[in-house]
Design brief:
Length: 491
């Protein structure tokens, strides 16, 4: 083996500590072997005496200095032309680079090894924890023991995929049990919400928020939450709740749920004054309910469409739809629906009575207003038996308007304040605003313009906050008639 080949193979040893000195010595002997001294004694002595200028000697190579930090500094050398110093320097530098690369690779390998050991220890710890949990599961649920034993056996045989599949099945069953627990808790929260729904809006809101948090797939919980949000005038949040109901119904293929959500979204648009959009949604809901034979749903949508036609002034079409609703509700024995139908028909007679009063047909007006009161009273009795404060407040307000149209202002004030107090009690924002607006009319007829204006301003602020466009514009119009020089809040 040549010297250069040996150096190339053993560079890792040569470039550490004393190995550098060995290398220097090797280079010295190499130069002697490759440059033998001439046989002429005279030449030899000259060479000896003039070593600095003519010959290369071991002492000349040894003049290379090694610093304490291990780095080698090559000093200029002289010698025979047969010795290639540049080659030596190049080879030495290359060996240094190779050594540095090897050192870097070794450190990287060491780091990888340390990380691998850490991961192995972590996996070992996780496995130990999993085995402990499985052992507890085996004791707590004896029925699961064969499944767990199969998983452990698969692990012992190295069949990790098989074991993983078994563990996934166990996890799925545990998650299902957890979901069932959440559903049971959600049902309990829903019961709390139902108890509070009629009397305490905030408690009901808290309960239904908890219900949908525990069971986000509970469409009934989302629907009732939407009703409560609608009650407090949070129309955007109510819309999101109803849209969630719609999405859940779509995914589950429950057309009855889809129809219910569609109708409720129609109420959102109706409240905002977008009657065309509201009509579109109520017709969709009506058709869906008709297709699945859901008569109570059909009755609701006939009533909702009747409200739209009344607002538009088409009283004949409104009455037709409310009568259809009443007929269906009577057939089904739904007192909730019957009460709503009576109340809505009462509004039709009230509006007609007001029109006849404007035309000075007082007898006809009184007849219609009497019919209106009769229907409202029927509705009120049913609503009181049902305990539905929202609707009780509505009917008190409607009766107040009827008494005002008859010029019975004391009875009107009594019923309007009942409506206001009940709406405040349950936190129903649109009911509060409606009562304030009607009380404003009462004061206007009494000649108390300042009180009329004060109540209308309060009503206007609430209508604007809720986003009830039609009512906002109406109150702004009334205010402009009594105080045309004062600024009126805008949307």
């Amino acid at each position: 083996m040549g010297a250069w080949q040996w150096v190339a193979r053993n560079w890792a040893v040569l470039f550490q500590g004393i190995g550098v000195t060995v290398l220097v010595g090797a280079f010295s002997w190499l130069s002697i072997l490759t440059n033998p001294a001439p046989q002429d004694s005279k030449q030899q002595s000259v060479s000896a005496s003039s070593a600095q200028t003519n010959t290369s000697s071991p002492s000349a190579v040894a003049a290379n200095s090694i610093h304490a930090d291990g780095n080698v500094i090559i000093s200029p050398q002289s010698g025979s032309s047969n010795f290639d110093a540049h080659r030596l320097i190049d080879d030495y530098a290359k060996a240094k680079v190779d050594a540095a690369s090897a050192k870097h690779a070794t450190e990287a390998a060491r780091r990888d090894a340390v990380q691998a050991i850490a991961r192995a220890r972590q996996s070992e710890q996780q496995l130990a924890e999993a085995l402990k949990a499985l052992d507890e599961e085996r004791r707590n649920r004896p029925a699961q023991a064969p499944t767990i034993d199969a998983a452990l056996d698969a692990l012992g045989r190295g069949r990790t995929n098989e074991a993983e599949t078994i563990f996934k099945d166990i996890l799925a069953s545990k998650e299902a049990a957890g979901r069932q627990s959440f559903k049971e808790a959600a049902v309990a929260a829903g019961h709390l919400g139902a108890l509070a729904f009629l009397n305490d809006t905030e408690k009901a809101l808290d309960a239904y928020r908890k219900a949908v948090e525990l069971d986000p797939y509970n469409h009934d919980g989302w629907n009732r939450l939407g009703h409560l949000l609608f009650r407090i005038g949070a129309l955007n949040d109510a819309q999101q709740a109803y849209e969630r109901v719609l999405s859940l119904g779509d995914k589950a293929g429950e057309r009855e749920v889809v129809a219910k959500a569609t109708g409720n979204l129609g109420l959102i648009y109706q409240m905002r004054g977008d009657l065309d959009k509201a009509e579109e949604f109520h017709h969709k809901a009506l058709n869906l309910n008709n297709e699945i034979g859901q008569k109570d749903g059909m009755a609701r949508q006939y009533g909702n469409l009747g409200l739209i036609y009344r607002i538009r002034g088409n009283l004949a079409k409104a009455e037709e739809h409310h009568q259809k609703a009443l007929d269906l509700n009577t057939e089904l024995g739904r007192n909730e629906g019957i009460a709503s139908s009576y109340s809505n028909l009462g509004l039709i007679y009230q509006m007609r009575g007001n029109l006849y009063k404007s035309d000075k047909l007082l007898d006809k007006s009184e007849e219609l207003l009497d019919k209106s009161e009769e229907l409202f009273r029927k509705a009120l009795d049913l609503e009181i038996s049902l305990g539905r404060k929202d609707n009780i407040a509505n009917i008190y307000g409607n009766l107040g308007v009827t008494y005002r149209l008859r010029n019975d202002l004391n009875k009107a004030e009594e019923h309007l304040h009942k409506a206001l107090n009940l709406s405040r009690e349950i936190g129903r924002k649109d009911g509060i605003a409606n009562a304030l607006a009607n009380i404003g009319f009462l004061y206007k007829e009494k000649g108390d313009i300042l009180e009329a204006e004060a109540n209308w301003q309060k009503a206007l602020s609430i209508f604007i906050a809720i986003g009830m466009k039609r009512e906002t514009e109406a109150v702004q119009g009334w205010l402009s008639q009594i105080a045309p020089t004062k600024p009126i809040p805008q949307r």
